[in-house]
Design a protein that fits this description.
Number of strands: 14
CATH superfamily: Endonuclease/exonuclease/phosphatase
Shape: globular
Number of domains: 1
Radius of gyration: 19 Å
Structural class: alpha+beta
Helix content: 10-25%
CATH topology: Deoxyribonuclease I, Chain A
Length: 306
């Protein structure tokens, strides 16, 4: 599951570590969403970087209604957080990049999938939050952020570099990429097709999947109905709705199962009751009908061996 929760809105109002930009309180709704979706791996954005991995693991476990003996593992960088019920290895799998600007850093980790179900196969996850805004500097920074991700992916796939993955390891890159419909969205082509924008710094283009093809885009729709695909919504006429958030993956190693953008406003009363949700759970500010970002959910299965 990927979810830009809007700055620390999921934490209690009196939490001393709340980000200065926190305006909204959706803690109870967030808990209901986690308990309904029951994700194994979560990518969150707009979480205050001051929060420790231990604190985040305890908080998510409580919000998800996990048993006391289930420890959620955390990898957090900047405002991006990877949380998982499974084991997690961060050392040796962090993205290699410069310390400045901080926006180039994204959470990344190798998820230790249960051997009883998945054998020796693990899952590599990059949880990203790209620069917002429509100025030229914003567009260029988004391109640079995508270049950094792809340069690291090249290193991960090439033996002997700073980072190494076992060949064929499933890879998922997900998060809020701020892919505006009005934007040149150069970074979209970089992430999907490995089309590096600044090759003088980040190297030549690459085919990011193990079978030398582009990454696949999960393209979830609202509640899986296939009609609406926007992941961010505001009633302001200045900002058009759009699929700002994406889930890219190596379809040589993963098969797409159930996929949807959770929109509780479109669920029937019967469905809401069954799932333990409320109609306004995905709306950030019900009085103004401001949705902000919606949660994206995808089920994957390991692809059958060729």
């Amino acid at each position: 599951m990927s979810y830009n929760v809007n700055w620390d809105s999921i934490f209690p109002e009196n939490d001393p570590q709340n980000h200065e930009l926190r305006e909204f309180d959706r803690g109870e709704a967030f808990g209901r969403i986690l308990r309904a979706v029951q994700p194994d791996v979560i990518c969150l954005q707009e979480i205050n970087y001051l929060r420790s991995a231990q604190e985040l693991g305890q908080f998510i476990g409580q919000a998800a209604g996990s048993s006391l003996d289930e420890d959620w593992q955390i990898a957090n960088v900047r405002d991006t957080v990877i949380a998982t019920r499974f084991g997690l290895q961060e050392a040796g799998y962090k993205l290699v990049t410069s310390l400045y600007p901080l926006d180039l850093q994204q959470a990344a980790a190798l998820i230790d999938l249960p051997e009883a179900q998945y054998g020796s196969t693990d899952l590599y996850v990059i949880c990203a939050h790209f620069r917002a805004g429509g100025e030229r500097s914003d567009i260029l920074l988004r391109s640079r952020q995508a270049d950094v991700v792809m340069a690291n992916l090249r290193d991960l796939k090439t033996p002997g570099g700073k980072l190494d993955l076992e060949p064929g390891t499933p890879i998922v890159i997900l998060g809020d990429f701020n892919m505006y419909a009005t934007d040149p969205a150069v970074h979209a082509g970089t992430l999907e097709r490995g089309d590096i924008y600044n090759e003088s710094i980040y190297g030549e283009d690459l085919q990011p999947d193990w079978d030398e093809t582009p990454l696949a885009d999960a393209q979830p729709s609202h509640n899986g109905l296939g009609f609406d695909f926007y992941t961010w919504r505001s009633e302001s006429p200045v900002f058009p709705w759009g699929a700002l958030d994406r889930i890219f993956y190596t379809d040589s190693a993963l098969e797409l199962g159930n996929t949807f953008i959770l929109n509780t406003m479109l669920l029937s009363d019967e469905a809401l009751d069954l799932l333990g949700l409320e109609a306004g759970d995905v709306v950030l500010d019900p009085p103004s009908d401001f949705y902000d970002h919606l949660p994206l959910v995808v089920d994957f299965e390991l692809a059958a061996a060729p």
